[in-house]
Structure formats: structure tokens, C-alpha cells
Design a protein that fits this description.
single chain; mainly alpha; 6 helices; CopG family transcriptional regulator; Arc_rbn_hlx_hlx; Ribbon_hlx_hlx
Length: 160
Amino acid sequence: MSRVRLNIFIEPDHARRLDELAAMKGLSKSSIIAAALASFLSPDAADRRDAAFAKRLDRLSNQFDKLERDQTILIETLALYVRYFLTVSAPVPEAQQEAARAQGRLRFQQFIEQLGRNLMRGRSLVKEVHEEVFPDAGQFFAMDDPAAPGSGVPDEERLA
């Protein structure tokens, strides 16, 4: 079978990566390019690319659904807390309002500082409290485990 010689121009980065791959695999650059071209031109190449995109989009969709669920939980938690706080808080008498504002500013500053410390440490207060309450529960926040509850994997797939 005869072969056709082509002179092509490629980006310097692609040329470097091709050289590295050829050296690492012990193959000629021509054979690597021929295999890549055959894969690109094959009739099912588009289907494979579409399947890869669909798989990635499914993962992104699952991650988005989890973020949306978490945001809904956060908003509901905040709303319930605000309603509870406003229900149980007694009004401050007029004579004590300035002192209450000063105390509020101080408490808010302390809150912001604590929030900053937690964020800098990379620890979650919710996770810490959960570990204190349920020390033997294992990983509640198993983000790296795709089969963990809340990981975006549907229950029927996780439980199968």
C-alpha cells in the first residue's frame, strides 16, 4: 500500500507534544498522526465525541442540580432562622437603642472575623458540628465518592 507524503504546518506546542508522545510510546510521528486522522475521519468519531460531551454535560447537570438543592436548603434555613429570631426577639426600648446598635456592630464584626477564619482554614462549621453529633457516621460530605448520597448520582443507580 502506497502512502502519500504531506507537508503540513502545526503549532509549535503541538509539535512539541507530538515529539514527546512519539518518544514516550516508541512510535513514529507519522503513525501517531495517521492514527489520529483515522480516528477523526471515522464514521463513528462524531458519535464518540457526542457521547463524551453528553457524559460531561450529564455530570455538569448533576453538579448544578446539587448546587441548586444546596442553595434552596440554605435559603430556607436562613428564612426559618430570621422568622424565629424576629419572633423571639423583644423590642429594644428607645433609651437603649444606641447601645444595642453598638453591640450589634461589635457582634457583626466578630461574626465576619469568625467567618473569615473558617474560610481561611477551609473547614466547614456544618461539617464540624455533624462530626461532633455523629462521630461514627463516616463521611457525611463525601464529595469525592460518586456513589455517596447527594453526590449527584441518582438513588436508583447508587443503590443498584
